[in-house]
Amino acid sequence: AFFWLVSLLLASLIWFISVHLSDREDAKLQYGLLVFGAAVSVLLQEAFRFAYFKLLKKADEGLAMISEDGRSPISLRQMAYVSGLSFGIISGMFSVINILADSIGPGIVGIHGDSPYYFITSAFLTMALVLLHTFWGVIFFDACEKRRYWCLGLVVASHLLTSGLTFLNPWYEASLVPIFIITLCTGLWAFFTAGGSFRNILKCLSCKQENDSRVMMYSALQVPLED
C-alpha cells in the first residue's frame, strides 16, 4: 500500500507541475493533461509493483538463508496475492473516499440532470479495480519470475485500458461493462497462472458435497428420537 501511495504522489506532482506550466484557460489542453496524468499514474504504479517484486525477492532470499530447511516460509504466489490485494485495497479506498465525502450532502444526486446511478456505479467500479489489482499482482509476479515480458506488457496495457475507459463516464454502460469483462478475463488468467484448473474446481465441489452430506448425517444422528 505504501508503494502504491508513493507512485500516486509522484504522478500527482507531475500532473500538478504540468497544469501550472500550461495555459489553464485552455479546456482541451487541461483535459489532455488529465489523461496524461492518468497514464503516468498507471505506469508509475506498475513500475513500483516491479520495484516491490525485486524487494520481496531480496527478502525471500534472506528468509531462505535463515530458515532451517533452506526454503522461504512464504511462497512467491502468496506474496503476489498479498501485494496485489494491498494495491487494490488502497486504490479502492483512495478512489472512493472523495465520493463518500460528497455523499454526505447537501443535495440529491441527479437533481441537476446528472445520473442518479453515480454512487452505485462508483461502488462497482471500485470493486472491479480492487479485484483487478489482485489479479494483476498474481500475473505480474509470475511474469517477472519466469521472464515472460509479453505478460508484463499485457498487464500494463490492460491497466492503461481500464483507466482510459473511466474517461467515458458518465456513459456508464460504455465503461463499466468492458471493465467487468476485463476483470473476468484477468481473473481467469490469474487463476490458471496460480496453478488452478477446472479439474481442481470439480474436486473442490465434490469434496464440498461430501462434507455437506457428512454434516447432515452427523446432525441427524445427534437429534434425539421422540417417544
Can you describe this structure?
The chain crosses the membrane at residues 31-48, 79-97, 117-141, 148-168, 174-192. The chain has helices at residues 2-21, 27-66, 76-103, 118-146, 149-165, 172-193, 198-222. It has 227 residues and is mostly helical. Helix 2 packs antiparallel against helix 5 (149-165), helix 3 (76-103) packs antiparallel against helix 4 (118-146) and helix 4 (118-146) packs parallel to helix 6. The chain is 80% helix and 0% strand.
The number of helical runs is 7
Number of strands: 0
Strand-residue proportion: under 5%
Radius of gyration, in Å, reads 23 Å
Reading the helices and strands in chain order gives HHHHHHH
Structural class: mainly alpha
How is the main sheet built?
A: none
Assign an overall shape.
globular
Q: Low-confidence parts, pLDDT < 50 over ≥5 residues?
A: none
Helix content: over 70%
Average pLDDT, rounded to a whole number, is: 83
N-to-C span: 62 Å
What number of structural domains do the residues give? Answer: 1
